[in-house]
Amino acid sequence: MADATPSPLRIAMLSYYLPSGSKIGVGFQAHELATELARRGHHVDMFSDCPPVPGAAYGHRHVAMAGSLRTFRFATDLGKQDLSGYDVLHAHGDDYWLWRRRAPLHLRTVHGSCFEEARHIRGAKEKLRMLLLGFTEVLASVVADRVVVVSPQTRRWVPRSHDVVPNGVDTSRFTPGDEAGRADRPVILFVGTWNGRKRGRDLAAAFARDVLPRVPDAELWMVTRDAPADPGPGIRVLGRLSDEDLADAYRRAWVFCLPSSYEGFGIPYAEAMASGLPVVATPNVGARYVSDEGRAAVLAELDDLGTALADLLLDAPRRAALSAAGLARSRAFSLTAVADAYERLYRTPRAAGLRRTRRAAPGGRPAPAGGAA
């Protein structure tokens, strides 16, 4: 009889970014997924240029980098790492030079499209960088055995993708509060950057122009580290918050807004929804997917953003309806559901067969790790 309990897996996870050294969302997602998989008993090692995350439940292998073009050179240095002995190689980027088979299953998660981001980013140098990174995403989709995208729309730019697995949020941390815990005045919460595609600067302008004249006691709380010293009346810059303080901010705010020009997924949207917080967003790819094409959020173009926010702050029944719709939608993005999906992919028949071959070589000895499949 077959063992009903699958054995733990050895997983090599690759992510240039981690929360310990970067605010990029991919790093947070890689960290959260690795934590959940380690909690389930799998052995997970994270290969990253960033330092270890304090208290992380998984192992850390530092791929030390220095100098310029590190995001490109990281891929070359990964090829020098010993990845033998792992059952799964799960890359969140930069695996496009790993042509030789190093594990029974090489899985790549594409968290968005650099081609799409190049259409919206400002500056010729940044556009060129995004275009080059876009070509590495295409190359990586050929190198990997299995390619996962985080939203259906991302498939437009990924010529070879097999599955859609969204990013996940910890629904034990991001939970709804009660009305007694809400701020005593209307609060809009923003999580992102003042500059760049998150467009915090544009939100601040819309708040001053369209929200304050109609809701004079409103506040805009901005979880950001690049805002100016005086961002404007009614605006509070919170800097970077701890996980616990961020979850509390979601529960205290009245409305969440992230007016990005582009998101491949948009983890803050899902965090806000899981916290019972109504969401207002611009109709970028990620916001459309996470909100189920606007059924669980308000989608408004940038020019109409301030009006939509003021309308929602003044409409309690509408906020309650959006809170319920967002909470229901957020269940599709729970970290446990996402980890379940990846575990199923890790144990695909091809990968399982290759694992058995490696673990039971002729003569009863373990097969050498890192051999060609």
From TrEMBL:
Keywords in UniProt for this one?
Answer: Glycosyltransferase, Transferase
Query: Start and end of every Glycosyltransferase subfamily 4-like N-terminal domain?
Result: 25-173
Gene3D superfamilies according to UniProt: Glycogen Phosphorylase B
Q: Which GO terms describe its molecular function?
A: glycosyltransferase activity
Magnesium keyword on record? no
Q: Where is the composition biased (Low complexity)?
A: 360-373
Question: Its domain of life?
Answer: Bacteria
| Chain intervals for the UniProt region annotation (Disordered) | 353-373
Its recorded name reads Glycosyl transferase family 1
